[in-house]
Amino acid sequence: MNARRNRPNLMSRLFAALVLASFAFGAAAQEREQVERRVQSVGTLIESSSAAKQIDSSGVAAARERRDNARLIHREAVAALAANDPGGAAKLLDQAAREMMDGARLARPEQVAGEKHKRDFEARLESARALLAAQQRITKEKGATKEAQDAARSIERQIGEAQGIAAQGRYEEARPVLERAYLTARVSIESMRRGDTLVRSLNFASKREEYDYEIDRNDTHAMLIKVLLADRKDAAPAMAPFTEKAAALRVEAEAQAKKGDHAAGIRLLEDSTRELVRAIRSGGIYIPG
Question: pLDDT truncated to tens, each residue of the chain (289 aa)?
């Protein structure tokens, strides 16, 4: 009698167990399906998403390293899923996605631009220091005129100012200051060497070659003036008469060169550059010349 009474209870428990097992199986199957979809989506994120393209184009080594880490972790997730461990696979996929997004942040455009600005600044700083050393050496060789000494101090001050700004990570602001130092040093050296046997013994192969040399010298002075005016708009009125005369002489020089009279062009370019030297001095940089 008791056995008969217990039989329905046993059947109920078995049915309930079967239902629970069915739910558990369904939940496990659903979890596996979700993880499989996530395997695909994280794989796409790593290999062909906009973040992946950003890392590819950035050239940032740290960003590429994070992406490589994400690939390895993604492979581990695939292996975990194949071993019937969807929970472990899901955790690995989360980790892979985080690595990938960290890589994308390292490769973001402003980060890439910042690294480039830093590299450009450091390269120009090295060049400016080399020119300053050359300027100081030539100044000593030529007897250390007051103008040359003033120029050396100005270059040193500008380099120091540029480094101070760059130390705060403001490379774009530091670059024009450093460019002024670089050009000041170059112009100072060229001005001191005018008429020097060092320049006169260059043995130009032709008047055309000497004309090209004078064009480059004129361009260097003109670049320094542009840098000065970008910083000191108030200096423009004092510099204008000299820059205008220099521009007119440059036009005449180019006209003579077109006619084949490079000797006349050279003389006009030398006059033009002298006017640019006067403009630079009126802008507050005292270079020899």
Answer: 444 544 556 555 554 444 444 444 444 566 778 888 888 888 998 998 888 888 887 777 888 888 899 998 999 888 888 888 888 888 888 988 898 888 888 877 655 566 778 888 889 899 899 888 888 888 787 766 777 788 888 889 999 999 999 999 888 889 888 988 888 888 888 777 664 544 444 567 889 998 998 998 899 888 888 887 777 778 888 889 999 999 999 999 999 999 999 999 999 999 999 999 898 888 777 776 6
CA atoms 145, 147, 151, 157: torsion sign: positive
Q: Which residues of 181-191 are buried (b: 16+ CB within 10 A; e: fewer)?
A: bbbbbbbbbbb
Within 10 angstroms of residue 148's Cβ, the number of other Cβ atoms is 23
| Residue 11 CA to its chain's centroid (Å) | 76
In the chain, where does DSSP find H-type helix?
A: 2-47, 50-58, 61-82, 86-106, 109-141, 146-166, 171-193, 197-200, 207-231, 236-258, 262-282
Kindly give, in sequence order, each residue whose CB lies less than 8 Å from that of residue 147, ignoring residues fewer than 6 positions away.
286, 287, 288, 289
Q: How far apart are the first and last CA of the chain?
A: 126
pTM above 0.70, yes or no: no
The token duo for 124 is 């120009």
